[in-house]
Write a structure and sequence with these properties.
The structure holds three protein chains of three kinds.
Chain A lengths: L2 H15 L8 E6 L4 H17 L3 E5 L5 H13 L6 E5 L3 H6 L7 H4 L11 H4 L3 E2 L2 E2 L2 E7 L1 E5 H7 L10 H11 L12 E3 L5 H10 L19 H15 L15 H7 L3 E6 L4 H9 L5 E4 L11 E9 L7 H12 L1 H9 L4 E2 L2 H9 L5 H7 L4 E2 L9 H16 L5 H17 L1
Parallel strand pairs in A: 1-2, 1-3, 8-9, 11-13
Antiparallel strand pairs in A: 3-11, 4-5, 6-11, 6-12, 7-9, 7-10
Chain B lengths: L1 H32 L3 H4 L14 H9 L2 H32 L5 H11 L4 H14 L6 H6 L5 H13 L3 H8 L4 H12 L1 H17 L2 H6 L8 H6 L9 H35 L1
Helix pairs in contact in B: 1-14, 3-14, 4-8, 4-11, 8-11, 9-10, 11-14
Chain C lengths: L2 H28 L2 H15 L14 H8 L5 E4 L7 E6 L6 E6 L4 H30 L3 H32 L17 H26 L6 H35 L16 H7 L2 H13 L2 H16 L6 H13 L2 H11 L6 H8 L11 H30 L2 H9 L4 H12 L1 H17 L2 H6 L11 H11 L3 H29 L4
Antiparallel strand pairs in C: 1-2, 2-3
The chains are: A alpha/beta, B mainly alpha, C mainly alpha.
């Protein structure tokens, strides 16, 4: 090697190793699992915040996948280089609160102009951990059934009504499951079975039961009760009796169910508001006509559906505490919520904004979404830390019934034991 | 003559079948990349877009700062390739050609490092790099994969399969160890080096978790992370994701073509012998 | 020592010096930042509400600090370690809340780093180079070794002393931070920095003396000489592996016997409790069994890859393009591939089932039925890795001297004989490599499982590393995941040892 080569290499090494950043002014880092489109909407808010706070620069650093996202946020908080503001999923509240890494926003809410009373109380509830408020909620969705109006019309079946019962549901899916081209094979189904807990939690609640005891300490005494068993039997019978295609074993974002639904081969699909932005254009063009209805309940019990919300939280060790709390508040103020609502991403958490944007909706779906709110419940993830383990156990539970053909009674008992063990740790 | 023609036809037939099986999923990828978003959500899914929508490519590649991501990926890949090729050639050569105290246990340790899944090392490595103050720096991004035991193992195996008479001849001519390595062994191992370089490049190019964890700012994101971010928890943009995935293929294919040339040059060396 | 070797020594010394400066720089900037920040904040919070007694060292400009933060009486927290750091809680400009803790350290970087380091570095660079090159040219390697060792040792000691000496200075001066963000930045742990520097210096000295010893080894027995040469070839990779792989693995072992959470302050030793837990978990054994079955795709793919390599080794027209096509799957984003295959294997719309239906065969729910899900995944893995194995084989085939094949052909060997007797034995080391690494990687890959089946249906495709991923990242039980990783390593070591023994029995050259 020539001396010049040596010098070049040494210089390159020196530059590579000392690649450090210089700070000018204050940089706030904000992170979330949002999609590029959502980030583009939020960028407007960031620029407005920067205009109000000269010298402040906001860097948005999104991570798309959920489990990676959570781990990266926790790791960076633990390593002492936290983001200043991060999006906290309502179902992760207990896990974050247990580790004591989120700033209590309650004492600051007034100072940054957040009037807690203006949020839907049911949506604020998941973010309360004891007497703390761990995030400012920015958007939420209840779990509902979407239905394809065209299929109902074609079959001459009346569209479902809010608060309908399990019996009415069964009659409907029976009427809507058919062989539309007459080749002897069913090609239009009444509904699908979504194996994941978040999709069937509302069914259990609507039957007056629950997967955990009210104190959140155990599953036995709740999950192994007859109401749960009956409801799970009803749900898992759907594919067995042919009212639903065999359940998809793959993740939800992959959209095989959505494919069926959008192409008119499925009458009822359980999902949340997050479906709207993807299909809004087609709703407006009239390519699909959809309605929204509550998850069926049993006679004598009320509708109760989980409200899945997310909110902006501030790590306890952010170096810019005040600015961070201000930014979190900025992101949930009415103007920001209006802008997000206009893109249909989620339901605003401020009551006035939610009703205001629902009143502009021509499909009637938004009002049907809001109908669910008084019946909203707090997802268990906001209350018990090992929620992801419970979710996995519940997925297993359905698999054992559907795939392994284990009797429902035994399956729920075994699942109770697994969940009890996770909760006891 | 006709026998030869038949053999030729058979060869082509086998090659074409293979090619078709290998390429079919990519055609679907490409086709999806050109679809309207709603079109994707049809059942049964259409094979071809009704109207190819080339705008998906420009939209996907501008929805995120992909130019920056490509730059970062290239930096990561260049550093990884340099580090892994140099160390693999040196250590692989020593393990294959030298008899020395501690060779077997040391090689076992090297192989042993292959056993640990990268996912398990992620957090310990992060804490280490954090302690070095390298989080969110280019140095931190490239640091952990500069040496790869598999590359060393691969080079060792290649050196083992090479005849050693040329090296011995050079030694007889009075060349030092370094000269034998640099002037005799390395040129002979060029195809293997190209292989290591190629796979080091691909590894670096497809790396997702480490770059995600080590980058604190979006300026340090890599291409793979960009592709993945079109598919999150509550959303999926199939056309954009497939468009980005197709675009991400291009640099690696270029590298492959270059590496392939090196194999052919290797063939020429083989001929000299 | 030849001229070329002298140059290499020179280069190594320069690289080492620059690297050590870089490491020191970064160590000083960021070491142990997290724990200290947490500590300081916790203590500051504990003191909130009490009337604090200012206990700053005399030369601290309290008024300046107070003016900056509009905080008249900053809280003072003494570090229990002694006078190393004095931390004080600081309120934000709007008297909002405690926003961080300021480390009351002097212009430590200016003092300790700015003065000491360039001097030390220059010393190391200049003298090290002199010590490394000059005596070699003068053919007195022993003097060079002794001199180098002494010089580097002295430099290390000087550095350590310099840093130690600057500690009181750190404690007695308040740095005025440029922005609020600095307030939460406590000074780095100098003890650790010193340790690292000493390690680097001693390592450099040892390496230098080894090189010199090697140079002086002309008169020694060939065996010793060869050992030294080999270790010199191995040193760079070994150094990196020790730091970035072996040390983290050690940490992983440590975690696996403790109750460990990143954010927990209390991490008690629990012995083998985590191992007992996973041993009692039927899902763990299921995953292990699945992994062993899944690994079977490796030998199958190797055979296909060898065949493909032989086909693609021919001088056919368009062969370059074909190679690209076969290689394509290995290159593409795994997530994208998984999504595509999910569609190809779909029960109702998948191409595979459409083809089956066209042949009047029953449709198969490839990913939905426990019997076929794992084979389907194996198929996809084989498809995606065929190109990789093919390239390795291709490179191996290219390395076989054509003269050998030509001679065999002249001797009248058929194509099969040429393959069986020449190519196959010469490809043996390559095959060993592919089998060993292929099996290991089959246990490591989980992206396909993660995207395509999430371990389902009913855990039919659950493999160990997916369980590790899920346990660590979704359930956030890193300690249990570490225990699983340890078990996985043990399993792989056993498998590899088994294979190694088998191939070693067959071929002496491996």
């Amino acid at each position: 090697m020539t001396p010049r080569g040596v010098v070049t290499l040494a210089a390159a090494l020196a530059i590579g190793l000392s690649a450090c950043r210089r700070d000018e002014g204050v940089t706030l880092r904000i992170t979330s699992w949002q999609s590029p489109e959502e980030n583009a909407i939020d960028a407007v808010e960031y620029r407005a915040f920067e205009a109000e706070h000269p010298g402040v620069r906001i860097v948005n650093d999104p991570v798309s996948n959920s489990s990676e996202y959570r781990e990266i946020v926790l790791t960076s908080i633990g390593a002492g280089s936290p983001p200043d503001v991060f999006l906290l999923d309502g179902i992760d509240v207990a896990a974050f609160a247990q580790r004591n890494v989120v700033l209590d926003l309650q004492p600051f809410a007034e100072r940054v102009g957040v009037q807690v009373g203006l949020f839907f109380p049911q949506v604020l509830e998941p973010f309360r951990a004891g007497d703390k408020l761990v995030a400012f909620p920015k958007g939420f969705t209840p779990m509902v059934y979407y239905y394809n109006r065209a299929l109902f019309a074609k079959a001459g079946v009346a569209p479902p009504k809010q608060g309908w019962t399990q019996e009415e549901f069964l009659a409907t899916v029976r009427a809507l499951t058919r062989d539309s081209n007459g080749d002897g094979v069913v090609d239009q189904w009444g509904t699908v079975l979504d194996r994941r807990l978040y999709a069937w939690q509302a069914w259990i609640w609507g039957a007056g039961a629950d997967i955990l005891t009210p104190d959140g300490r155990r599953a036995s005494g709740a999950l192994d009760q007859p109401e749960v068993e009956r409801t799970l039997t009803l749900l898992t019978d759907l594919p067995r009796l042919g009212y639903a295609p065999p359940p998809s074993t793959t993740g939800g974002a992959l959209g095989f169910e959505q494919r069926l639904f959008y192409s008119g081969k499925l009458a009822l699909l359980t999902s949340g508001h997050w479906m709207i932005p993807r299909i809004r254009r087609y709703l407006e063009e009239g390519r699909v006509q959809l309605g929204v209805v509550s998850v069926p309940r049993t006679e004598g019990h009320q509708v109760r559906t989980p409200l899945f919300a997310s909110g902006w939280a501030v790590p306890y060790n952010t170096p810019h505490r005040k600015l961070a709390v201000e930014l979190a508040a900025w992101m949930v103020r009415a103007d920001a919520q209006r802008r997000r609502a206009a893109s249909g991403l989620e339901i605003p958490t401020l009551m006035t904004v939610a009703y205001e944007s629902a009143s502009k909706d021509t499909t009637g779906m938004e009002m049907d979404f809001l109908w669910q709110v008084p019946y909203g419940g707090v997802p268990w993830g906001a209350r018990v830390a090992p929620y992801r383990e419970i979710e996995a156990a519940m997925l297993d539970l359905i698999d054992r019934i559907v795939v392994d053909r284990v009797p429902v009674q035994r399956a729920v008992r075994d699942a109770s034991v697994v969940v009890d063990r996770a909760l006891a740790r | 003559m006709s026998d030869r023609l038949l053999r030729r036809a058979l060869g082509y037939g086998a090659a074409l079948t293979l090619a078709l099986v290998m390429v079919a999923p990519f055609l679907w990828m490409l086709s999806t990349a050109l679809m309207d978003e709603f079109e994707v959500y049809q059942a049964p899914p259409p094979l071809l877009p009704t109207v190819p929508r080339f705008a998906n490519f420009t939209e996907a590649l501008t929805a995120l700062p992909f130019a920056l991501y490509f730059r970062n990926s290239l930096i990561l890949a260049a550093a990884t390739v340099t580090g892994q090729v140099v160390t693999a050639a040196m250590a692989g050569y020593a393990f294959a050609r030298h008899r020395f105290a501690g060779r077997t246990p040391l090689f076992a340790v090297y192989l042993g490092t292959l056993m640990i899944p990268g996912i398990a090392l992620l957090v310990p490595r992060f804490l280490l790099v954090d302690a070095m103050g390298l989080v969110d720096t280019v140095a931190g991004l490239v640091s952990v994969e500069l040496v790869a035991a598999w590359g060393i193992f691969l080079m060792r195996q290649y050196f083992l399969s090479l005849p050693r008479d040329m090296e011995d001849a050079a030694r007889l001519d009075g060349a030092g160890e370094w000269q034998v390595f640099w002037h005799v062994a390395v040129p002979l191992a060029r195809p293997a080096l190209a292989t290591v370089a190629l796979f080091a490049f691909i590894d670096a190019w497809k790396a997702l978790l480490w770059p995600l964890v080590i980058a604190r700012s979006p300026d340090l994101r890599v291409v793979e992370a960009g592709v993945a971010s079109f598919h999150g928890m509550y959303f999926a943009n199939w056309p954009w994701q497939m468009a980005a995935a197709v675009a991400a293929l291009v640099p690696v294919l270029v590298v492959f073509l270059v590496a392939q040339k090196a194999f052919l040059r290797g063939l020429a060396f083989g001929g000299i012998k | 020592m030849t001229r070329a070797e002298t140059r290499v020594v020179m280069l190594a010394i320069i690289v080492w010096t620059v690297a050590s400066i870089g490491v020191a720089w970064h160590t000083l900037r960021g070491i142990d930042y997290g724990a200290r920040s947490r500590d300081a904040l916790a203590r500051a919070h504990a003191l909130r509400g009490r009337v604090p007694t200012p206990a700053f060292p005399r030369d601290l400009d309290v008024s300046e600090l107070a003016a900056l933060h509009k905080e008249e009486r900053p809280l003072v927290v003494d570090d229990p370690d002694g006078s190393e750091i004095v931390t004080a809680a600081v309120k934000d400009a709007d008297d909002w809340d405690i926003i961080g803790a300021v480390g009351l350290y002097g212009r430590w970087r200016e003092r300790a780093f700015a003065t000491a380091w360039p001097a030390v570095a220059a010393l190391l660079l200049g003298v090290g180079m002199f010590a490394g090159v000059r005596p070699v040219r003068d053919a007195s390697p022993r003097a060079a070794a002794v001199g180098g060792l002494a010089l580097f040792g002295a430099a290390a000691a000087a550095t350590a002393v310099q840093l130690r000496a600057s500690v009181p200075a750190l404690a007695s001066h308040a740095e005025l931070p440029a922005s609020l963000s600095r307030l939460a930045l406590p000074p780095p742990s100098l003890a650790f920095a010193t340790l690292l520097l000493v390690c680097l210096a001693v390592g450099g000295a040892l390496a230098l003396s080894a090189v010199h010893w090697h140079a002086a080894a002309a008169g020694r027995p060939a065996r010793v000489q060869e050992t030294l040469g080999a270790w010199a070839f191995i040193a760079p990779s070994l150094l990196h592996l020790v730091v970035f792989t072996i040390a983290p693995v050690g940490f992983l072992f440590w975690i696996s016997v403790h109750d460990w959470d990143l954010l927990a302050t209390d991490r008690p030793f629990v012995g083998l409790a985590h191992f007992r837990e996973i041993g009692a978990d039927p899902l763990f054994w299921r995953a292990l069994r699945n992994g062993l079955v899944y690994a079977l795709y490796v030998p199958a793919t190797m055979i296909a890859a060898l065949a493909a390599a032989v086909v693609l080794d021919q001088p056919l027209r368009g062969i370059k393009l074909l190679r690209v096509v076969v290689f394509l799957p290995f290159v593409a984003s795994t997530v994208a591939i998984a999504l595509v295959w999910q569609w190809l294997l779909h029960r109702d719309f998948g191409l595979l089932n459409v083809a089956l239906a066209a042949m009047h065969l029953p449709r198969v729910d490839w990913l939905g039925s426990p019997a076929t899900a794992l084979p389907a995944l194996m198929l996809v893995s084989a498809w995606s890795q065929l190109g990789y194995m093919m390239v390795i084989y291709l490179a191996g085939l290219q390395a076989i001297p054509t003269s050998l094949l030509e001679a065999a052909r002249l001797d009248g060997a058929s194509a099969w004989q040429r393959f069986r007797l020449i190519r196959w034995p010469l490809l043996r080391p390559v095959s060993t490599y592919l089998l060993l690494t292929g099996i290991i990687w089959s246990f490591h890959g989980f992206t396909l499982v993660y995207v395509m089946t999430e371990g389902g249906p009913a855990h039919a495709t659950d493999v160990l590393v997916y369980r590790i991923f899920q346990t660590a990242w979704e359930f956030r039980r890193f300690d249990v995941a570490a225990a699983m990783s340890v078990v996985l390593c043990a399993v792989l070591l056993a498998l590899t040892a088994l294979q190694w023994r088998t191939v070693k029995g067959e071929a002496a050259d491996v």
